[in-house]
Amino acid sequence: MMTMMIRPRSMIRRRRVLGAMLGAAAMMAACDTAAPEVVTTDTVVPVTIANVDVGTIRARVRVTGVITAAPGADLIVVAPQPARIAELTKAEGDRVHRGDLLVRFDIPALSAEVSKQRAEVGRAEARLGNAHAAQARARDLFERGVASRKEVEDADREIADAIADVDSAKATAASAGALAAQSVVRATFDGIVARRQHNPGDHVESSAADAVLRVIDPSRLEVLASVPMTEVGRVKLGAAARLAGETAPAGLRVASLPIAVDPATTSVPIRLSMVTRIGLPVGAPVTIDIDAEEHAGVIVVPASAIVREGEEAAVFVAVDGKAVRRPVTLGLADGADVELTSGLKTGERVIVAGHATLPDGAAISSTVPPQKASS
């Protein structure tokens, strides 16, 4: 005889609920212990690569400065004393030649002084002429026994005094003439009128703040730059320099060494002479790169290959169709290239374009950029 046990439906329902809860708990536990995320993609990213090789790199010191006229190439015309402008022949932008009349000042006091001193010279020369005649008479009388020796000596003394008087008068007249000559100003070099602040008839003061004209020789310009205190030791006399960002041959040379600190900016001024014309006007602000240290026989890669993450630097190396991230240590930099002191070796291939958002291990298809034409 078969006996059958029949369970209540409520008991069966409780067991089903318990099984569902246990299954859910197991799934949650599995989620808490999930494996690390792995970036996988089937997309092949096109990139540009460059071969890693040994080369030479020179660091640069970046400074700011302003275009200015070189010593002797800047003429600022100022009245020798308060005066009226009688003649002013040149306008701004006009070209002038050495010896050209620039300004003639009307200074009556100087003209009067010149006339006075010329009269003094005439008086002194007349006295000297009289002294010579008196000396001749005294000697004649002495030889005939009429005059005494003392009268001859007095005549000789008068000659000496008259000569000194003539010399003094001529020196004073020359000084007055030199001062009066300053009322006529001529160009001392070929150049261009850079600024004109007055017109004929204007009254001007004897002050640089009230200058009449400024003439500059555009063929003799230089750069007056400021070197940060931290970079002073890297700047050498005669070092080549160029406008920042330029790759052309150096158009500037360091013409003076850093000597004194500017207390207002805690920087040191230097002068850079122009080897070739820059084509910028006087007063134009410029940023200059000055050649500094040079390292030869080192690993050099394009600056575009460097990926920065905070204070760390890395590159992506092309290995078997994959982009492999590689930490590196940086050395000198010249704006276009960077020296690597560790992380790469010659013969490897580094990605220089297309790696901005590239994940480590991504599949890549690479091209090599064309070689630069040699100059």
Note down, in words, how this protein is organized.
- By secondary structure, this protein is α+β, with helices and mostly antiparallel strands.
- The protein has 4 domains: 45-57 and 295-367, Beta Barrel (conserved putative lor/sdh protein from methanococcus maripaludis s2 fold), CATH 2.40.420.20; 61-70 and 218-294, Efflux pump adaptor protein, beta barrel domain (Elongation Factor Tu (Ef-tu), domain 3, Beta Barrel), CATH 2.40.30; 79-104 and 184-217, OB fold (Dihydrolipoamide Acetyltransferase, E2P), CATH 2.40.50.100; 108-182.
- It is 25% helix and 36% strand.
- The strands form 4 sheets. Strands 2-11-14-13-12-15 form a 6-stranded antiparallel barrel. The chain has a 4-stranded antiparallel β-sheet with strand order 3-10-8-5, with no helix packed on it. The protein has a 4-stranded antiparallel β-sheet with strand order 7-6-4-9, with no helix packed on it.
- Mean pLDDT is 83; it is low at 1-19 and 29-39.
